[in-house]
Amino acid sequence: MKNSIFLRLRNYFATGVITTIPIFITIYVVLWIIDVFSRLLPDLINPNKYLPFKIPGIEILIACILLTILGMISATLFGRRLLRFSETILEKIPVLRTIYSSVNQLTQSFGGKDNNSLNKKVVLVEFPSKGSWAVGFTTSEPKNYNLGRLQGNFASVFVPTTPNPTGGYLLIVEKTSLIYLNMNFEEASKFVISAGSVGNIS
Question: Which residue ranges make up each domain of the chain?
Fold first, then answer.
């Protein structure tokens, strides 16, 4: 009888932990995002800096509105000219041009601006050792790589880390060793972030 009660309490405890961990992590991430936006927004346009009370999450709302306005401006002729002018300046600064060019190409690749048919294809790549497989995204597929001794038909594959997909590894892999999956970018991202608990590989 006592063992039965103990087992039941242990199961309840385990269920409570499994239930609350995602909630606490979500709350922590939201609070972290709010803190980041509160630091980025100038005090002049942040109501929480001068109102007698705080409005939780107002920084995110203001940031979303500003980003939407910037997107609308960049879609106009004036905005495109201003953007090109800014890019020209950034590309002339030695260190910044390297960072900007790399980040810009990455965001265009995963943002769908690149019309390459292979872009954002989800693949399985044998990594980090033989017999182990990781989910990756093909970022480019040049007809021929010539990197010193490396010659052949290869593809560049970005393998994100779990649960933080912003970090990862860039692999140059022989195309014949890749397994192409019937998954879109969003499905694969959920699979990676959830450590394989959400979604199925197909």
Answer: 121-193
Residues 6+ apart with CB under 8 A from 189: 160, 165
The one-letter amino acid at 3: N
Structure confidence by residue, pLDDT tens digits, 77-124? 877 787 778 778 777 777 766 766 666 666 665 555 544 444 458 899
Q: Name the DSSP letter for residue 48.
A: G
122 exposure class (CB count in 10 Å sphere: 0-12, 13-18, 19+): buried
Q: Which CATH number applies to 121-193: 3.30.1660, 2.30.30, 2.60.40, 3.40.190?
A: 2.30.30
Q: What does the alpha-carbon distance between residue 75 and residue 124 come to, in Å, rounded to a whole number? A: 37
Q: Give me the percent of the chain exceeding a pLDDT of 90.
A: 1
